[in-house]
Every structure is written in C-alpha cells, then in structure tokens.
C-alpha cells in the first residue's frame, strides 16, 4: 500500500468514528426558495436595494480610476496590500465605535487569533468565559500567556447553585493567584463575547467590568469583548453592546466581525494606538496574509454608511418584533402539548438577541423536517454545544415576515405531534 493510501485509510477510520458518534460534518447547499432561519445576516443588508446600489456604484467608480486591481490587493498590508482607502475606513470605524484606533483583519477569526496569540506575555494570564468562540481558543493555544483559566459561562460574582464561587470570574480573581493578580505585577486578560451565538444570551458586561475593576485596582485587568454578534443590532445605530452600555473606556479591546449583521466579510480590532502598532508588528494573521481586496473594503463602507445614516433603524425595530412573535408562538406550542424536555424545550425567558435556541434530543430529525417544509434551520450538536444541550437554532432576520414565523413554528409543531403521537388540539 502506498503512503498516500495508507494515510487515506487512517483518515477514513477517524471519519468513520465521527460518523458513528453522529458528529460527521459535510458541506451542503441551501435549496432555492428556502426561507432563511439559519444564517447570521440578521439585518438582511444584502437584500436592501440602497445597499446594493451603493456597492455597485462605488465599484463602478473605482473601475474608472487608477485604483488598485478590483480583483485583489496585491500583497499583505505590510508590503503592497495597504491602501489609503483601508486606512480611511479604519479611522471611520474607530470614530463610529468610540475607539482610539482600529485595525482591519480578513475575518473576525483572524482578528481573535492574531490578538490573543501575540499580546499576552509569558507572565500574563487569560481568564475566559467557558463558551467563548473557537477562534479565541485557537488564539489562546498559540499564546505565550503563562495561564489560561476558564470561568463558568456568564458567572461573575458566584452562585449558591451547583457551580461554586471558584467557578466564577470573582473566584479566579480572588483565588490562589489572587494576591499576584491584585498586586498589578502581571496583566490579566478577561475574554468574553457580547452575544453568544448558540444560546443568543447577552454577556453581563457591566458586572464583568465592575468585578475586574473592584478586584484588580492597579488597572491590570484588561477586558476583551468579541462583538461579532452584537454589532449592527445593539447600541445606537448598531454600535454594539459596549457602546450601548457606555463601557468604551472600561473595555481594553473589542473584536468585530462583519460577516453577521453587516452582511459582508472581514474583522476589526478596536484598541489603543499603541496596541494597533503592536498588532501590525506581531500579529501573524495580519502580517502573513494577503490584504482585503477593494470590493471587500467597499462592501464594509456601504454597510456602515447605511447603518450610520440611520437607515437600518426600521430593520432593527422590525427584527425585534419578529423575535417576540416567534418566542411567543414557540412557548404556546410547548404549553399546548407539554412535551418532555428531552423532546422539545424553549426557554420561558424573553430572548435578548435575534437568536432563539429550540432544545431537542433529536436536532437532526427536527431540522430535516423543517427543511423539507421549506425553512432552513440547522441542527447544533456536540461538541459545538455541550452534550445534552443539542438544539436547532432559529436566527431571525429583518427580511423575514410574520407569515414565515407562523410557518416555521407550524412545522415544529407538526414534527412534535408526530413524535408524541397526538392530535393537534382544536383552538
């Protein structure tokens, strides 16, 4: 057997084991005319005529000038890929988000990996919410930080319930290393997300910053917030959760992603001017990759112009109405049939974002049924979420309608009826 065939055989065994655990992944295509309840394009900006027209007009204008190639940037930012347009965009975004400086990356994943891998030094420590994004974990793996310590999701001050004080952020700050942290002798980076994409819950960011400032009075507590799922939806004109809460001066760095509500691609780090310069010198995901092409820069420009001019405000209001309607109808289904929690469960608490998880022990079956009815939702299974918390995730979009909400909830109800072997009650 050749070496290539031997390796393929070994890889096939790994894939077979994943299939046996029902964890196998594959690429799929969304059928045409499917109603989107899956993507992260919450504001549906790509469907807005004004956004499309502005994008095409600027692209056309650029084609008639001596602008760089429309197809590529020609190199990394440090070589030939930088442009006055990229630097102007960074200044605009820093001003809009009330930050001192901004640095573009090709994706939010690149931004997180670049930031976390190069800034913490060997004597530093990273404390992180256990449910932060995989890109933060990848950055931490490459980091030289002396310690990386998780705390229970969104648990700041501790709890009397099953998880103890030691599992909280306070428990870490006031734990065995507390004296060293509080002496100010090492930097303590605290990593959280503004909105967590699997549950749609919002970080208790005011409590996080208050806890850090209380227990690290020397100012060595540096909060980093991943705002990928909040920009565009939270804050005045979509500035994000940090701005909504007025915490710009109390958060050390923010990572933004443009692939969600903004409807384009790319990432951004909002930080100090010194940190920006440090990242340009040390962030490998910036240094060793080809810079954004002109169409990507233009797409970010027009999305932000639309948002900064207040044109997205009606979309956000409509989106919040849809979220309330969907949650109300889902709770009504649960109340009607009272299914066992392993079959179907929806949190009674009102959604804090545009994401509603519908928990079920049969996520693939439920997702497949909804897809067959023309509604695109995806099954979310371990290890993406902890075992026992499998679900489908309903992501609402500004382009969705009330009738589409009724339709997908009806599809979920029909699946539940078939599983419980009951009849639909007469209303």
From TrEMBL:
GO terms for molecular function: pyridoxal phosphate binding; transferase activity. Its cofactor is pyridoxal 5'-phosphate. Coiled coil: none annotated. Residues 34-405 form the Aminotransferase class I/classII large domain. GO terms for biological process: biotin biosynthetic process. It holds the Pfam family Aminotran_1_2. Keywords: Pyridoxal phosphate, Transferase. Gene3D superfamilies: Aspartate Aminotransferase, domain 1, Type I PLP-dependent aspartate aminotransferase-like (Major domain). Belongs to the class-II pyridoxal-phosphate-dependent aminotransferase family. BioF subfamily. PANTHER family: 8-AMINO-7-OXONONANOATE SYNTHASE, CLASS II AMINOTRANSFERASE/8-AMINO-7-OXONONANOATE SYNTHASE. This is 8-amino-7-oxononanoate synthase.
